[in-house]
Design brief:
Blueprint (H helix, E strand, L loop, with lengths): L8 H22 L6 H14 L3 E5 L2 H11 L7 E5 L4 H9 L3 E5 L10 H7 L4 E7 L8 H11 L2 E5 L7 E2 L2 E2 L6 E5 L13 E5 L2 H10 L24 H32 L10 E2 L6 E2 L5 E4 L3 H10 L27 H7 L2 E4 L7 H27 L1
Helix pairs in contact: 1-8, 2-8, 3-4, 3-7, 5-6, 8-11, 9-11
The structure holds pyridoxal-5'-phosphate.
Pyridoxal-5'-phosphate binds next to α3 and α4.
């Protein structure tokens, strides 16, 4: 049995290496390793791709979120709504910025925040919302922006999983005051280490974030004069060279992810899965889902995963514990969030990467069908006893 990995980063690296090798060497010999022309050029291309005016390269996606919150003046005592089902960095950035996360439940169908769950979470202390485009899908932005406008709160996008995702023809990064991207290796656009960016169409906000990410230096100021206290969170030139080469392939790779997802959906909708307790997640008609992850829901998830692992298929769980129930965030949990809590026990991420073959998708679906039969039969026998 040939193993099916969860993701294949080396396949992407091999595709771009011949192209970037001379640029890597030129950069190494040039000696400008942090910032510089390669970074400026990637920032310009990345902003244009997202449909925004400015991009600021930073060290990672978590910093992108924290720096955006700080630059927008969000801090002490302010509440920022975040969905309960997201990577912990979304909520951690809020706490690190000195604000308090206020958790919102998610839709049972898309697993994303909805205008209703946002409205329910807003209090008199709420000043912002971080909308997370989880798994590669942008939630109902039309509705979310309307609720935020009505409440007078700022919208920030956590687009770490949504490079190239669209809502009603507009790309991730073009909706919020600021949009935060991660280029962690496994993301749809990944560096060969940690990297990130903030995208915005407000020039003064871009300047403030650039300064905060660079020890509080001002644009055009001297190296040792500081307008404010900042962090050290910058993008390296080598990462920018790699990201630019990968950006040229992002649309092709996203299209391939979408094709892999359609094949999964088609196979998983067949009669052999009827009555199997497998549930697919929905995609809104206005959304272009770019499938950072392909997530389904199953009962007895951990047994199903173990059966898949026995068949050499690597899977993931995003995420096994909702944010509000993580020990360091429990103090911000003030009410049950039933949809996110139930989903956390059922979510299963199947292998998904641009170089995945149709044969691999078929193999995973056959194995999943067998795994579901085995775990269902077993639990029925246990129940009889
Ligand atoms: C990856 C990720 C982040 C954090 O990005 P890093 O670059 O790892 O710091 C934040 N939010 C979400 C939803 C993510 O998937």
């Amino acid at each position: 049995m040939t193993p099916v990995p969860f993701i294949d980063l080396a396949a992407m690296a091999s595709e771009v290496w011949p192209e970037i090798e001379p640029d890597f060497l030129a950069c190494l010999l040039d000696g400008r390793y942090i910032g510089g022309p390669a970074v400026t050029s990637f920032e310009r291309d990345w902003a244009a791709y997202c449909g925004a005016d400015h991009a600021v390269g930073v060290a990672n996606g978590t910093d992108a979120l924290q720096l955006s919150l700080t630059a927008l003046g969000l801090g002490g005592g302010d509440e920022v709504v975040v969905p309960a089902n997201t990577f912990i960095a979304t909520a951690a950035a809020v706490v690190r910025a000195g604000a308090s996360p206020r958790f919102a439940d998610v839709s049972d169908d898309t697993l994303l925040m909805t205008p209703r769950t946002l409205a329910e979470a807003i209090t008199s202390r709420t000043r912002a919302v971080i909308v997370v485009h989880l798994f590669g899908q942008i939630p109902d932005m039309t509705g979310l922006l309307a609720v935020a406008r009505q409440a007078g709160i700022t919208v920030i996008e956590d687009a770490a999983q949504a490079h190239g995702a669209e809502w009603d023809g507009r790309r991730a990064g073009s909706f919020g005051e600021a949009a935060c991207f991660s280029f962690y290796p496994a993301k749809n656009l990944g560096a060969f280490g940690d990297a990130g960016a903030v995208v915005t169409s407000r020039p003064e906000l871009a300047d403030r974030i650039r300064s905060l990410a660079n020890h509080g230096r001002s644009h055009g100021g001297s190296h040792y004069e500081h307008d404010r206290l900042g962090a050290n969170s910058r993008l390296d030139a080598l990462q920018a060279i790699l990201l630019s080469a990968k950006l040229a392939r992002l649309e092709t790779w996203n299209e391939r992810r979408i094709a892999v997802a359609s094949r999964y959906r088609e196979l998983l909708s067949r009669t052999e899965f009827a009555g199997s307790e497998l549930k697919q997640t929905d995609v809104a008609p206005l959304a272009r889902h770019v499938y950072h992850l392909f997530v389904v829901r199953v009962a007895r998830r951990d047994s199903v995963r173990a059966e898949l692992a026995r068949r050499s298929i690597q899977t993931g769980v995003h995420y096994p514990v909702p944010c509000h129930l993580q020990p360091p965030l429990l103090r911000f949990a003030d009410r049950p969030l039933p949809v996110a809590e139930r989903a956390a026990c059922e979510l299963l991420s199947l292998p998904m990467f641009p170089h995945m073959t149709d044969g691999q998708v078929e193999f995973v679906c056959e194995a999943l069908r067998d795994a579901l039969r085995i775990t269902t039969t077993r639990s029925a026998l246990i129940n009889v006893k």
